[in-house]
């Protein structure tokens, strides 16, 4: 399963997995784009290797619907690539009262992973790859001068997800980075809990890639130069490469609970390793998604 499959990086991941012989479940908010990608994959591989699930990952019910549709079709899952992501210039909340970066960049992947743990276990050895951003290690939009500034996370907000990325002092890029930090923190705990099950969980920053998110994140002063800037960034194929490596490389079988910047293992912000905070985040996330199963 690949979420965000109709975006630049997602299209490459889905097509390459199908080319390698996998049946790929494309998760997309738009049916037309997903059907077009399904036809493209069929034309490139000469086989009907793509399925489509249309749904809204920004809401709790949308995630449940997507997971339920997958479970109705398949009893096992070998790979889940939580690639869907978004950046919002203005603060918005979803239908459940959670800020949209938290909903899309964190809770969507968390909810799918927890809801499909039975299928992942049945498909073991299986892998979960969470696509994150090294913005969590430096939440500045312009980074040419000065010291990196890791994103700030208030531990007092972890027990109530609706408080994270609140309206006071809302900064879009920091909100985006904070949600990616939550994904990484949650993944570390889940990786430890699943360590003896054959299910691995890792996170990867694919590098700064010329995708639509870059268009939205770019500082207004950079807009006239955006075309030139994007030509200096990674292509979607280059951005997809480290994600595909984590998803398929034989030498990474059994590797779990790690964070990679492209192909190199690195450290995420120190707060992400705090086990007490990981557990508090997990409890609040379970409460939000109403997933209460024990992964052990």
Which strand order do you get reading across the main beta sheet? 4-5-6-7-8
Name the overall outline.
globular
CATH H level: which superfamily? NAD(P)-binding Rossmann-like Domain
- Briefly note the structural class of the backbone: alpha/beta
Following the backbone from N to C, one meets helices and strands in this order, namely EHEHEHEHHEHEHHHEEH
Quantity of strands, as a count: 8
**What are the low-pLDDT stretches, counting only 5+ consecutive residues below 50?**
292-296
What percentage of amino acids are in beta strands?
5-15%
CATH architecture annotation name: 3-Layer(aba) Sandwich
CATH overall fold name: Rossmann fold
CA radius of gyration is 18 Å
- CATH class equals Alpha Beta
Number of helices: 10
Tell me the domain tally. 1
Distance between the termini: 23 Å
In helices, the fraction of residues equals 40-55%
The averaged pLDDT comes out at 91
What would you note in describing this structure?
- The chain has one domain (55-228, 238-289): NAD(P)-binding Rossmann-like Domain (Rossmann fold).
- It is built from 10 helices and 8 strands.
- The chain has helices spanning 8-19, 31-45, 60-73, 100-115, 117-122, 172-193, 212-217, 226-231, 236-248, 275-289; strands at 2-3, 24-28, 50-54, 79-82, 126-131, 199-205, 259-261, 264-266.
- Mean pLDDT is 91; it is low at 292-296.
Task: Give the topology, please.
Blueprint: E1 2-3, H1 8-19, E2 24-28, H2 31-45, E3 50-54, H3 60-73, E4 79-82, H4 100-115, H5 117-122, E5 126-131, H6 172-193, E6 199-205, H7 212-217, H8 226-231, H9 236-248, E7 259-261, E8 264-266, H10 275-289
Parallel strand pairs: 1-2, 2-3, 4-5, 5-6, 6-7
Antiparallel strand pairs: 7-8
Helix pairs in contact: 1-2, 1-9, 3-4, 4-6, 6-10
């Amino acid at each position: 399963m690949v979420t965000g499959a109709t975006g630049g990086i997602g299209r490459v991941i889905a097509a390459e997995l199908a080319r390698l012989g996998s049946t790929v479940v494309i998760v997309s908010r738009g049916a037309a784009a997903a059907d077009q990608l399904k036809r493209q994959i069929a034309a490139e591989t000469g086989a009907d290797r793509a399925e489509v699930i249309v749904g809204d990952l920004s809401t709790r019910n949308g995630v449940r619907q997507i997971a339920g549709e997958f479970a109705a079709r398949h009893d096992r899952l070998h790979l889940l690539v939580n690639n869907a992501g978004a950046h919002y210039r203005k603060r918005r909340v979803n239908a459940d009262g959670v800020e949209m970066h938290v909903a899309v960049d964190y809770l969507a992947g968390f909810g799918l992973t927890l809801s499909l743990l039975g299928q992942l276990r049945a498909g073991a050895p299986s892998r979960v790859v969470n696509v994150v951003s090294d913005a969590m290690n430096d939440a500045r939009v312009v980074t040419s001068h000065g010291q990196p500034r890791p994103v700030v996370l208030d531990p007092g907000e972890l027990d109530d997800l609706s408080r994270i990325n609140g309206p006071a002092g809302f900064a879009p890029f920091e909100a985006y980075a904070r949600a990616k930090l939550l994904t990484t923190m949650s993944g570390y705990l889940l990786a430890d809990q699943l360590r003896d099950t054959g299910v691995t969980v890792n996170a990867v920053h694919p590098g700064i890639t010329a995708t639509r998110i870059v268009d939205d994140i770019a500082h207004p002063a950079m807009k006239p130069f955006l075309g030139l800037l994007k030509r200096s960034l990674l292509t979607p194929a280059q951005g997809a490469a480290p994600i595909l490596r984590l998803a398929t490389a034989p030498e990474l079988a059994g590797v779990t609970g790690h964070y990679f910047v492209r192909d190199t293992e690195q450290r995420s912000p120190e707060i992400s390793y705090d086990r007490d905070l990981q557990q508090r985040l997990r409890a609040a996330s379970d409460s939000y998604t109403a997933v209460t199963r024990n992964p052990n």
